[in-house]
Amino acid sequence: MATDFKFIPVIDVSPLLEKWDHPNIAQDEGVAQVVKQLDQACRDAGFFYVKGHGIPVSLMKEIKNIAREYFHQPYEEKIEIKLSAETGYRGYQRIGENITKGKPDIHEAIDCYREVKHGMYGGLGDVMQGSNIWPTNPPNFKQLMEEYIDRCTDLSRKIMRGIALALGGSADEMEGDIGGDPFWVLRIIGYPAASISNGHDKAHDDVGCGAHTDYGLLTLVNQDDDIVALQVRNKSGEWISAPPIPGTFVCNIGDMLKILSNGIYESTLHRVINNSPKYRVCVAYFYEPNFDAAVEPLDVCLQKTGGTKNFEGAVYGKHLEQKANNDEEHAAILVLFWRNGIIQMWPKMKVLAQVVRQLDQACRHAGFFYVKGHGIPISLMEEIKSVTREYFHQPYEEKIKIKLSAATGYRGYQRFRENITKGIPDMQEAIDFYREVKHGMYGDLGEVMQGSNTWPSNPSKFKELMEHYIDLCTDVSRKIMRGIGLALGGSADEMEGEIAGDPFWVLRTIGYPASSILDEYDKADNVVGCGEHTDYGLLTLLNQDDDIVALQVRNKSGEWISAPPVPGTFVCNIGDMLKILSNGIYESTLHRVINNTPRYRVCVAYFYEPNFDATVEPLDVCSQKTGGTKSFEGAVYGKHLVSKVINNFVM
Q1: Residue in 510, 393, 411 with CA at minimum distance from that of residue 455
Q2: What pLDDT does residue 518 have?
Q3: How many whole angstroms separate alpha carbon 43 and alpha carbon 166?
Q4: Which of 91, 427, 515, 562 could form a disulfide with 83 if both were Cys (CB 3.0 to 4.6 A apart)?
Q5: Cβ distance 343 to 357 under 8 Å?
Q6: Are 207 and 201 spatial neighbours (Cβ–Cβ below 8 Å)?
């Protein structure tokens, strides 16, 4: 009978490796001892250390060193082998792109799979079709990894023969149609140091990889020798650390072996929390069944468990493809994003309804989503951030030439702590730009915001770039709002005309200082960048630095969820005016910025607003959907904006 565990056992498999193909392997005394240990470990823990495995320790170290060398390259180098559906889900993922149970993981990785040729498994293999894409730097990366994969495959096959004996079958019980032509996966992973993770990640133990089980038969983890980060959950629900033991692999069983054993062996939940001040590398090799294997409980295991199948059969390749698809397309981060947080703005009518559904779900569940396929050149998005950074890195005397004041219509530069959120100064500097308001344009309503933007003379191309960018953001926002009009059950132009036929806009370019310059007050109170708030208008497009996780969004449970950068996308969120128009069907969600990294962070926020003089009240179509009662009084947008602006700045 299985017992609970407080530590993970160590098994010397060398006797098994010496006799792995011997015809009388089961009768060997040394093998029998290993088999007994494997059986106990798989029943009690689902995890064990493997020593005496025959893979040179020097190779294990070299594999981690070369992985670290790759990850320490500039992002532009790493992205040359970017993972996508087109690569058969092979390649590099940046921090936050892998999803575990609906939450982004704070790690970067390269995923490699055994080659799948066209038609190799019929339609089953289409999703995973392709060969691995290897980095050119370090130059010996491919050669070393391929040698390592061959050795891990050989070792795993031999351990599986021991596990087959442990289950009461023959040594080759899981060869043939089950694992005679095994698939494999190699995942090379880098976990950032705790010093660059934000307060949310630390508080919720969610730094590296969320709790999960593995898909296949057997996993071999080669982890850094000096960092304790891997944790395994025992049957009592306690998280038990799996500290590194130099020269060993941490080995665990996966979902497919759980099925084969009819539940005699359990695929155990585990997670990674790197709370150390050092970057952590591990290389995980996954030994899987044949890609097209129909995996179901073994007869020998059925006999041991009363003759009833506790699991339906599963085709391994289908199981794997479903997981790969989920990570790329369907992983609903229920607390924050919809369909992996990314909405593709497809131009073709045949998928318009799909985009509208995605927008509706994102606005209902999160109020936040990523937008890709938006048509704004990535090169321009990068240039906008670069020119903003160039401006902020000038001496204060240069920046103050366009100082914000009431006389400028609240346009211009604010230094650190001059912006106020809910009564607390924000640790940011910024420039605010608004659509021009001419004298008398909106009567008394427009007097406070009257004026034109004051542009810096340095950098010299700042004004030209920003004005072009504003035009493009206005166009994209208007089109997204047409989709949201449809999502609410109205027409595409539901929010044109008197609501937003002549939309106001705001552009805010923001710089957040590195955490190393902050005083203890700022760190302690988590108001480093910008305090929690909702946005005023209809829609916000946020263009943030690609390599800093700082934006956080609060879900309905009150948890703060990180919104890590996804290169080439905007983070989009809805504002107070859209909440009113929808009669509360859509929520303007609280968010904040905490830059706990040692680097200066830039973001550029574009706000798409109603007409300045629009009276915003619930749409008829939304009132009908919510029982016929208007949940909000009408609000004049310009009046709402002015009240916010005059209370937001220290003059």
Answers
A1: 411
A2: 57
A3: 10
A4: 91
A5: no
A6: yes
Distance CA 532, CA 368 (A): 15
Cis peptide before 138 (omega within 30 of 0): yes
Residue 616 to residue 499: CA distance in whole angstroms: 7
- Residue from 503, 482, 478, 484 nearest 492 by CA: 482
Q: How far apart are CA 516 and CA 600, in angstroms?
A: 10
Distance CA 235, CA 238 (A): 7
Rg (CA), the chain: 28
The amino acid sitting at 375 is G
CA distances from 301 to 15, 102, 162, 297 (A): 25, 34, 15, 7
Q: Is the pTM of this model over 0.85?
A: no
pLDDT in tens, 33-57: 999 999 999 999 999 999 999 999 9
Whether 89 contacts 328, CB under 8 Å: yes
The torsion angles phi and psi of 639, rounded to 5 degrees, stand at: -65, -40
The residue written with tokens 């401006």 in the block is 391
Give the torsion sign (CA, 388, 391, 394, 398): negative
Using the structure block, give the residue that is written with the tokens 């390592």: 148
pLDDT at 138: 96
In this prediction, residue 342 carries a pLDDT of 55
Q: Which helix (H) or strand (E) holds 472?
A: helix 462-487
Number of CB atoms found within 10 A of residue 407's CB: 11
**Distance set, CA 62 to CA 65, 223, 422 (Å):** 5, 12, 52
**Sheet of 429-434, strand order:** 342-344, 368-372, 570-574, 539-544, 601-608, 505-512, 429-434, 412-414
| DSSP track, 559-593 | -EEE----TT-EEEEE-HHHHHHTTTSS-PPPEEE
Residue type, 501: G
Q: Give the pLDDT confidence score for residue 96 in this predicted structure.
A: 79
Question: Peptide bond before 459: cis, by omega within 30 degrees of 0?
Answer: yes
Distance CA 119, CA 179 (A): 20
User: How far from the centroid of its chain's Cα atoms is residue 201's Cα?
Assistant: 13
Query: Which residue stretches of 222-265 are H helix?
Result: 255-260
Q: Which residues of the chain have pLDDT under 50?
A: 1, 197-206, 326-341, 346-350, 520-527, 651
Q: Which CA distances in Å does 298 have to 2, 80, 189, 268, 397?
A: 20, 44, 34, 20, 76
Name the packing angle between helices 378-392 and 462-487 (round to 10°).
130
Q: So what's the pLDDT on residue 432?
A: 95
Task: Tell me the C-alpha distance between 187 and 216, whole Å.
Answer: 13
Structure tokens at 493: 């132009």
Tokens of 237: 């629900």
Give dist(CA 319, CA 257) in Å, integer. 13
What pLDDT does 206 receive? 46
- Tell me, what's the pLDDT at 645? 82
